[in-house]
Design a protein that fits this description.
The chain has about 120 residues and is mainly β. It has strands spanning about 5, 10, 20-25, 35-40, 45-50, 60, 70-75, 80-85, 90-100, 105, 110-115.
């Protein structure tokens, strides 16, 4: 079955960096675009970054442009989110996501990122 397993979250000081990973299985990873979302308490889940199946095209939320980088390794069935210059407002649970051509959605279990001094 489809599995998306995030890792790499943790506590980091403002200005610090983290790299999140999402290991995928149960589907043809190299054929599908992937996304990272995040959700803070009391807020709606928001799209953070998107990457096409080949990795050639990416897009970002305005709030993270220039600080976050999404990438993928299709040989390892893994998508990454490199987060630099972290701010307290980046504190959230981060989720890996993809949607099939039939619009079925899959989410990982999430990994918590806390930015605090």
């Amino acid at each position: 079955q489809v599995q998306l397993v995030e890792s790499g979250g943790g506590l980091v000081q403002p200005g610090g960096s983290l790299r999140l990973s999402c290991a995928a299985s149960g589907f043809t990873f190299s054929s599908v675009p992937m996304s990272w979302y995040r959700q803070s308490p009391g807020k709606e889940r928001e799209l953070v970054a998107f990457i096409t199946n080949s990795g050639e095209t990416t897009s970002y939320a305005d709030s993270v442009k220039g600080r976050f980088t999404i990438s993928r390794d299709n040989a390892k069935n893994t998508v990454y989110l490199q987060m630099n210059s972290l701010k307290p407002e980046d504190t959230a649970a981060y989720y890996c996501y993809y949607r099939t051509v039939f619009r079925r959605e899959y989410w990982g279990q999430g990994t918590q990122v806390t930015v605090s001094s």
